Amino acid sequence: MRTFASPGAMTVDWEERVNPDRLRTYRFGRAKAALEASDLGSILLFDFNNIRYVTSTHIGEWARDKMTRYALQTRGGTPHIWDFGSAAKHHRLNCPWLATENVHAGMIGLRGAVAPDAGLFRRAAREICEILKAEGVLDMPLGVDIAEPPMVAALEAEGVTVRDAQQVMLDAREVKSIDEIMLLNTACSMVDGAYQMLSERLKPGVRESELVADVTRFLFDLGSEHVDNINAVSGERCSPHPHVFSDRIIRPGDQAFFDIIHTFVGYKTCYYRTFVVGQGTHAQRDAYKRAREWIDASIELMRPGVGTDEVAKVWPKAEEFGFSNEMECFGLQFGHSVGLFLHERPIISRLNSLDHPVELKAGMVIALETYCPAKDGYSAARIEEEVVVTDDGPVVITKFPSAELFVANSY
User: With the CA atoms of 87, 93, 99 and 103 taken in that order, what torsion angle do they form, in degrees rounded to the nearest 10?
Assistant: First the structure.
């Protein structure tokens, strides 16, 4: 069975590790091919993940919700980027893969803080149209992934036909290169260590929020770019799953599960593990056993050519584990590709996959999640494994022990 490297963050001359030039070339080639396969002439990108995929630029998580960075890719052209103030000058100095004349300072209002009447949207739309005309695609539809309504209105006022670009970019991003897989694997190795630390610190008297703080510090010390979220859920909070941590104090016999989501060089983890504190009950062990059986059945199906409907069918129906319909339990028996974004294509669940299946391909990296409430009425088991789909079969890159319910600080 194939394995994948999880090298450290450093670049060295004595070992082949992540190759940034190869990574950038692969991503741009995938985006270019997806654009050419569509009916669009160009794509205008505001989604941070799409901007990074096409331009390999990043200015920090603080800017993710500002809606002021954007990139443009035309058929046959090279990427343009509009960035926040002096970041544009920084890119010209430090991003030689971008044409310097294609790097612009940009500002369209910081999600309405500068009102549309100031004309920044109109100015941006006209600048974009000048590039579309110069690159010969002004008469073709322009795809936009996400945008503020005034931006769309400004483009349409210039006579541009606006379409959806997100599907084009998801097509581009669904199959990962060896460099992307190495980054995802390295990100998982950092979480392996975080779970070891949690297993040692998970004991009566510690709060969920303290454990979240400990893991956040641990990941940043290892080189994490951003700790997106840590779910810490224990005791009576386990069922139903609240999807958020609290300040609850851990008690003897608690079942506790965690989801660690962080970013390493752009690439994210989604990685659950379940523990019991001190000593488990029959109900807790039984719930874990069933969640493990469900996830093992889905891992076995992570092979090229398998439909996501086949995967979803091995998971229980909503009514079989305490919910009235699939919408109410969405995200509990669940699969999703992971990459620059937490939830990429394909999304696997009984809600959408049975009627709209997607074929698995070699190079996809899928996070599979299962959840089983315990018969005691409040405990629950939650497991997640990240799996690389290969021609030789599934390769699991989440390594912290999960075959059986892990007992932390047994007594």
Answer: 20
Closest of 157, 233, 211, 183 to residue 5, by C-alpha: 183
- Asked if residue 144 has pLDDT above 80, the reply is yes
DSSP state of 124: H
Q: Do 137 and 94 reside in the same domain of the chain?
A: yes
User: Shortest CA distance to 251 belongs to which of 290, 298, 203, 294?
Assistant: 203
- How many separate domains does the chain show? 2
CA nearest neighbour of 71 among 84, 86, 89, 90: 84
Predicted confidence band at 184 (pLDDT cuts at 50, 70, 90)? Answer: very high
Q: Which residue segment(s) compose the domain that 390 sits in?
A: 178-408
Helix (H, G, I), strand (E, B) or coil at 91: helix
**Final residue in a domain of this structure, among 129, 158, 173:** 173
pLDDT of residue 411: 77
- Check: CB of residue 175 under 8 Å from CB of residue 363: yes
Token pair, residue 135, equals 């690159």
Domain boundary, last residue among 147, 173, 199: 173
